[in-house]
Amino acid sequence: MLEARLEQASVLKKVVEAIKDLVQDCNFDCNDAGIALQAMDNSHVALVSMHLKSEGFSPYRCDRNIALGINLTSLTKVLRCAQNEDILTLKADDAPDSLNLVFENSENDRISEYDIKLMDIDQEHLGIPDTEYAATISMPSAEFQRICRDLMALSESVAIEATKEGVKFSCTGDIGSGSVTLRQHNNIEKPELSTKIELTEPVALTFSLKYLVNFCKASSLSANVTLSLSNEVPLLVEYVPFI
Asked: Which parts of the sequence belong to the Proliferating cell nuclear antigen PCNA C-terminal domain (predicted)?
C-alpha cells in the first residue's frame, strides 16, 4: 500500500505543471525511497527525470514497489481542484487500478477526495548516465527563464558558450540577433542569486529554445538551476526542489 502526505499540494502541482507539456503519459515509480518518474517526450529529444524523496512527505509509507501509470493532463485537472495550501495525501493499493487523492483544508475544515484511473504503460527505464561535464553553470532559475523567453522572440535556437570569462547565451533569427552574458559573481546575502561556473575546458553548444522554455517551467520549484555541458552529450538541466 502507498500512502504519501504532502503538507502543501502546491509542490505536486508545480512538478506536474513543469513536465506535462513534455510528457503526456508516464509511470510514477513508488518505492521506500520516494516517488520517481523518468520518461522521454514524444520526439525522443528530451528526457524528464523527477524524484520526490520520501523525506519530503510526512508520513510516507510504501510497502512494495508500485508503478502508477498516469495521464498528466488528467492529473492536472484533478490537482486544479486543490488550493496551494491544502494538505495532499496520495493513496494506492498494492495492485491499484486507481490513484486516490485527498485534499484537506484546515481553515474551512474541508476534505475533498478524488480517484484517477490508472493506465498500463510499458515504459523503458532509460536513466541519466554519469557524465564528467566540461562546464557546470549554477545560476538563478528566474534569470535562465528570462533569457530563454527573451531570446525565443528572435530565434528558435540558442548558442550557449561557457568560458572563464562567463557564460554567453546568443541567437540569430530573421529579425535580428541578441545575446546575454553572465559573469561569475557571488552574492553573499542571497546565495541563490549567485552565478558560478566550473570549467575544465571551454564549451559552445546550440540547443532548441522550445525545449529550454519548457524546461524553465520548473523554475517555480527552485530559485537556482544548474546547467551541465560537454561536447557531443546532451545538456543536463537540474532543478532541486525545496520541499
From this structure: 127-239
The model's pLDDT over 181-233, given as tens digits with 9 standing for 90+, comes to 999 988 888 887 889 999 999 999 999 999 999 999 999 999 999 999 999 89
Relative orientation angle of helices 72-79 and 10-19, to the nearest 10 degrees: 150
Q: Dihedral angle at the C-alpha atoms of 106, 31, 38, 51, nearest 10 degrees?
A: 50
Grid cell digits, residue 141: 532559475
pTM of the predicted structure, to 2 decimals: 0.86
Cα-only R_g, the chain: 20
The size of the chain, in residues, is 243
Quick: pLDDT tens for 44-75.
889 999 999 999 999 999 999 999 999 999 99
Taking 90 as the threshold, does the pLDDT of residue 76 lie above it? yes
34 sits in the region (left: phi over 0; alpha: psi -120 to 50; else beta) called: left
The number of CA neighbours under 13 Å toward the Cβ of 33 is 6
Structural contact between residues 196 and 138, judged by C-beta atoms closer than 8 angstroms: yes
Amino acid code (one letter) for 77: K
Going by C-alpha positions, the residue among 40, 42, 100 that lies closest to residue 68 is: 100
Residue by residue, DSSP assigns 173-198 as: ETTEEEEEEE--B--SS-GGG-BEEE
Round to whole Å and give the CA distance between 90 and 110: 17
For residues 174 and 234, give the distance between their C-alpha atoms in angstroms, rounded to a whole number. 27
